[in-house]
Write a structure and sequence with these properties.
five-stranded mixed beta sheet
Length: about 210
């Protein structure tokens, strides 16, 4: 299938309610309207999931909540975005932020899981974990417990011909570290990537 080289058109939508303002993207004008609907619904679902996570950890009170997004990849028919949700309730020790993401094919509407970026049966968990283990050592990154391996469905996004694996606050490192992020070049993953998937598409030099 020939790839559309044009970026998707992105408009910003706003969810507002008392003490809450959340900005999130919606794609417009895609050739495949069903794909557009699927991706936009997935974005809204992710935004709602982040809100629920905040509601789970915040104490009762006058919670202030803000949401934003950052488009990481929008080329060759591949769209990848991160969505953040920041909230604070007075009396809590500090604010809390959650990060979500999704990576999609704008021609089909397919939302990719981490597993689907790689060839079936490939030992992608070991390959990615070995890379991250080296980065932790090189960066002298503090961890709450010794790092062993990523989850098979670890959070990720795509940016600058790289797969970026990331962890939530407290998931891997102390709060002050922020979100630990581990970029891995698509070229380092070529032996195991799904050539028909986003990594395969982004790795082709044009």
């Amino acid at each position: 299938m020939e790839r559309n080289q044009l970026p998707a058109s992105v408009m910003t939508r706003t969810l507002t309610r008392p003490n809450t303002t959340i900005y999130y993207p919606q794609l417009t004008g895609l050739a495949n309207q069903q794909a557009e609907h699927q991706i936009n619904q997935s974005i809204v679902h992710t935004v709602q999931g982040l809100i629920r996570e905040q509601e789970r950890v915040q104490v009762q009170g006058n919670t202030q909540m803000q949401g934003s997004y950052e488009v990481k990849t929008n080329e060759r028919g591949i769209f990848s975005v991160t969505l953040s949700n920041f909230a604070y309730t007075p009396r809590m020790a500090h604010p809390m932020t959650f990060l979500g993401s999704l990576s999609a094919d704008i021609q089909t509407g397919k939302i990719y899981t981490l597993r689907e970026l790689f060839k079936p049966g490939s030992d992608y968990v070991r390959v990615l974990s070995d890379n991250i283990k080296k980065q932790i050592a090189q960066r002298n990154l503090p961890t709450l417990s010794p790092f062993t391996a990523i989850s098979p469905e670890q959070d990720f996004y795509l940016a600058d011909k790289s797969l970026v694996i990331y962890y939530q606050l407290y998931e891997l490192s102390p709060y002050y570290v922020g979100f630990p992020m581990f970029p891995i070049s698509v070229y380092d993953l070529e032996p195991i990537i799904n050539e028909e998937g986003p990594l395969g598409i982004l790795s082709i030099d044009v």
